Amino acid sequence: MKNSNTNLTPYWERKSKDSNSNESLNFKKYLFYLKVSLYSFSLLMILWSFFQSFAATYTNYHPDPGVGLEFGFLPSDNGTGTGDVKFDLGSWSIAGPRYHAFYRPTWIYGPFLSWFVYPVAYVFMNLMWFFHKFPELKENGLYVIFSMLIIMFFMRFVTFWTTLRSSIYQEKQLLHQSAIDAISSKYDKYDITDKQARLKKHQELSAYYKKHNLKPLAILENFFINTPVFLIVFKVITICRPIKFTVLLNIWDLSKTPLTTIFDDFLNEGWMYLVLCLIIIPTNFFSQKTSIWLSQARHPSLKKNIVDKNSQTYKMQRIQKVMTFVFLLFTFFWSTSLAIYYFFNSVFTIFQNLIIHQILLFKKSNESESLLKLKKLGI
Questions:
Q1: Is position 271 within any domain?
Q2: Number of domains within the chain
Q3: Residue 3 within a domain
Q4: What is the pTM of this model?
Q5: Considering the domain boundaries, does residue 138 fall inside one?
Q6: Is residue 30 part of a domain?
Q7: Is the CA virtual torsion 120, 114, 232, 245 positive or negative?
Q8: Contact indicator for 223, 212 with CB cutoff of 8 Å
Q9: Beta strands at 99-102 and 68-71: parallel, antiparallel or unpaired
Q10: According to DSSP H, which parts of 1-117 are helical?
Q11: pLDDT of residue 306 exceeding 50
Q12: Domain extent at residue 239
């Protein structure tokens, strides 16, 4: 009788395996549609926020109290006011048509302000009111800073996990970038209108991504989370009424723009804003560069210069440099309150990059140990 090494699977077990496989595929499909829906909604809110500033000018902020869109509490005789002019909204009849009070969700201000900005602004206002009760914090404007830090920690906690996931996939992408560039360069000799060559290039790259579990668009997921958070913080910090009255440490008026103050009144107070910028700008620059430096520390081979200007790695580095420069410029054009917020945000980013660096090192160490064990087993 002829022996056979073929294992026959009973039909009931085969059916169970097929069922599990189908369930896994269905779950991935539903997860994909959920992500597409969430990211589409996120993109819609991002676009809404941008275009609302032009289409609905009454949603724009103004540095002067009683002008533009302001978020605060209703006056005491009308609602839950505080009796403090810094926290209570002004009267429409007194302030005139240029003033728009924002104290509750309403469709007048659209979904972005009502659904996303309002909850954060409400918490921020109550935090400021709580810390405002302490005389030592009230006198120096530190009640605003303490409230900012709490909001910042919450926002960064929300975005940390997507940032970590994006960093992991970026790490893998960098390690495979030379091979990806080699595949792309094979098709450079073909004309850009050659559809057949473009299709083959796409298929080859897709196969490589699938084989090595690469997700080049993972960074976009981070964009769809971080950008709305950035826009929410921008609105909250600029429209909350108490900030317009706050002078931090009796030196920096949080409602003023550093660039304007430096040029308009340099001798009196402008030089103090220049000092502030000289502290904030290097910190922002360092926070932008930290992730690159740490990545090079994990992989010394990445320190070499990218000669091929058509390579994806070179393009990514160029985009990073442009973004760093743009963020540095923003420090001058934002209000002082936003500049200070993003100073603390930059400090937090540095520590976050160090934490992610340690996580990636630990992950790399575990992968190296696994490969070593497999090598010893001859696998």
A1: yes
A2: 1
A3: no
A4: 0.81
A5: yes
A6: no
A7: negative
A8: no
A9: parallel
A10: 11-55, 92-95, 110-111
A11: no
A12: 35-377
